[in-house]
Design goal:
Blueprint (H helix, E strand, L loop, with lengths): L4 H4 L7 H6 L1 H28 L2 H22 L5 H30 L7 H23 L7 H30 L3 H32 L4
């Protein structure tokens, strides 16, 4: 994994240098992993139950954050070449997930059936609560005002914006009795997700290139 959240452009795995020397920070990151992966699985199932593409897209955001943080923590003792290879694999996998969500949204658009707005909105509110909790867990590590701390909070803010968009879409689905708000939000979240995946791939390839042939 790349050391800086700002360097990857995804802002999702914390400062690996600090995690290597600060057990409290490392524990906080593990809590964030559990929150993200655990709720990501719940939201993905909720997306299928509610028939909501926006929930499925948002669940990928949770699963992507959690998996990248998880591998970043495991990779603390790995060689740089191994970290770059794993990052590249992750980036490709996340990109495939993003394309899957876009494809599903396009397919649903041809037979647009409104999702379960109540369930969609409730899960969206729960997702917002999870992101706020994750931000609070990391709050005491913000001291110093460094770029890493700012990146954590910027990414938390972006996650919260996604959650609010899902909640608003649920309200519009209920009000308009239309699937289109759900599909539009799903497409937007998936595009943002694909951008993060591309940044991971781009930086992983750059690291491998710097390490030379055979890296």
């Amino acid at each position: 994994m790349i050391d800086s959240k700002e360097e990857t452009g995804c802002g999702c795995h914390g400062n690996s240098e600090r995690a290597a020397v600060d057990p409290a920070y490392r524990r906080a990151l593990w809590i964030v992993v559990i929150l993200n992966v655990g709720f990501g699985v719940i939201e993905l199932f909720g997306g299928f139950l509610a028939d909501s593409q926006a929930l499925k897209a948002d669940s990928l955001d949770f699963l992507g954050d959690g998996s990248i943080t998880f591998v970043g923590l495991l990779a603390l003792a790995w060689a740089a070449s191994t970290r770059a290879k794993v990052a590249l694999t992750q980036g490709i996998f996340l990109a495939l997930l993003g394309f899957w969500v876009l494809g599903m949204a396009a397919w649903r658009a041809m037979n647009a059936v409104p999702p379960e707005a109540d369930l969609m909105g409730g899960i969206g509110i729960a997702a917002l609560a999870v992101n706020v909790t994750a931000a609070l867990v990391l709050a005491r590590f913000r001291e110093g005002g460094d770029a890493q701390a700012r990146a954590i909070w910027l990414f938390s803010r972006n996650d919260a914006i996604n959650n609010v968009a899902v909640i608003i879409a649920a309200g519009l689905v209920y009000w308009l009795n239309s699937a289109w708000p759900d599909l539009v939000v799903a497409a937007v979240i998936a595009m943002i997700f694909l951008h993060s995946a591309w940044e991971i791939i781009r930086h992983a390839r750059a690291e491998r290139k710097e390490q030379g042939p055979g890296a």
